[in-house]
């Protein structure tokens, strides 16, 4: 292992026209591309060619068939390593349904992680859980009330080898992908061979990223989330494309290694939520020379697209060859496998500044003009066009299909859409309209032929006839706050309608009371100006927020934590006591 796999393929390029994951891997295995795993310092630690992936997956499948029945669910701890990829594809050959599972560090400590894993095990009905040996104890502890064997990757290799396989066919299942749980307990999204291969083809071809034989991926995204699993493990296999991986934990500690890998190996495609680009700007120290001119597709997904941090990224890294036109805002969700829309090539950040006062009153995203007060202006970013063979509609709460600039629920239909949630008929029924469209729960509007996403319906704060988006409050606070402040979270508590109290929690990295008073005064003033509604600001310690497995803020879970009195007010240095009326709301 002297060098990573090359970008240039030695076999003819086939852009994702495969009926199963096995078909895609069997073809990719005829070439010389594959997966490359790097340390936080950018040093190559292991290489897994697609030929080796196929051979080792087949080997492990011969061992797994002896302890399972066809169709069994297998939980796999989704570490960024060759073992995870091998076990995932082994399940494809063995006729098993893998369920990638998150890692403890993402969910707020061991106790929280074990409860999350228990809920997944309750719904997933696992026959076994595969994990690195280093995580056997925590996995076993989490599942001590479940009759689920926990087997290390190393011990799978010691299981007796059988002489048969039972691979999934084109009509079969593919995996169970747990939703990130930003507003509810995680649900197991069913991925089929047909839905996953359809979405991969949509990503690869015209209307998607238009991948060619010259493309190369770079990724730090976790493999238990759909953007990492489908976008940067399965889709590269289906397009015979090499990938350079950085572990998510290493990215958090050394985010600039992400950019260094793109520079060193000519990465052309790499995605991140907005915060990933923002973190790189904050950590930049002018201590290296990089070349980002190869990066033609800098995708933004996983959360709301915020223009200011992205423009700051261009300001910082433009001199190293990064172009603002390389940004590819997109929209997707696990229930559509991954991608629903992509911005057209070289469009960059298509901004649309609207009159929020009018939007909140009428539901129309009317363009702001010279008469619009600055505090009522809000800039959204277009997230592109629906991928081929799919239909996207914006619908009112009553199900009426809406036209241009009318904000409503985003509904999608097409071959990438999941058939439902595993062992959850009620959630499946609730997710679909009577005419078979998936109701995503997201709100948005049409800007010509592109969709603009405005937020989650469940997060909307209704106040005095206005629809207030919590992210508007959070972004206003973060823009006004000092560098000592971090994440913000806004939600409503209390009675119904106009009796609700709007809460804003803002993390601070100081306990100096004088400084906290200054922060409170500055941020409160900014919110009054920007929002025009009474907001109760509470400064809280760093680490108070709860994020999902994909890094999204979970407002519902933070609100629950707040109502349970489990959040400390730094200015009072004690846990917040919430009145009974608020708890009942």
State the main characteristics.
globular, 28 strands, GMP Synthetase, Chain A, domain 3, single chain, about 575 residues, alpha/beta, about 30% helix, 18 helices, Rossmann fold, about 25% strand
What would a concise description of this structure say?
By secondary structure, the chain is of the alpha/beta class. The protein is 31% helix and 24% strand.
Give an account of the 3D structure.
With 585 residues, this protein is α/β, with parallel strands linked by helices. Among the domains are: 21-246, 3-Layer(aba) Sandwich (Rossmann fold); 461-584, 2-Layer Sandwich (GMP Synthetase, Chain A, domain 3). It has 18 helices and 28 strands. A hairpin with a 5-residue loop joins strand 24 and strand 25. Helix 2 (50-64) packs across helix 3 (82-94), helix 7 (193-204) crosses helix 8 (226-238) and helix 15 (470-480) packs across helix 16 (513-531).
What is the mean pLDDT? 91
Q: What is the CATH-assigned architecture of one domain?
A: 3-Layer(aba) Sandwich
Q: Helix- and strand-based class? A: alpha/beta
Residue share in helices? Answer: 25-40%
Query: How big is the Rg?
Result: 24 Å
Would you give the CATH topology of one domain? Answer: Rossmann fold
- Per CATH, the class of one domain reads Alpha Beta
Low-confidence stretches: none
SSE topology:
Layout (H helix, E strand, L loop, with lengths): L20 H8 L5 E5 L5 E6 H15 L8 E5 L4 H13 L2 E5 L8 H15 L1 E6 L4 H7 L7 E3 H4 L16 E6 L9 E5 H12 L12 E3 L6 H13 L4 E4 L1 H6 L2 H10 L3 E4 L1 H10 L13 E4 L6 H11 L9 E6 L6 E4 L8 E5 H7 L14 E5 L3 E2 L4 E5 L12 E6 L11 H7 L6 E10 L2 E7 L4 E3 L2 E3 L1 H11 L4 E10 L5 E9 L4 H19 L3 E7 L13 H9 L4 E2 L4 E2 L4 H5 L1
Parallel strand pairs: 1-10, 3-4, 3-5, 5-6, 9-10, 11-12, 12-13, 25-26
Antiparallel strand pairs: 1-2, 7-8, 13-14, 14-17, 15-16, 18-19, 19-20, 20-21, 22-23, 24-25, 27-28
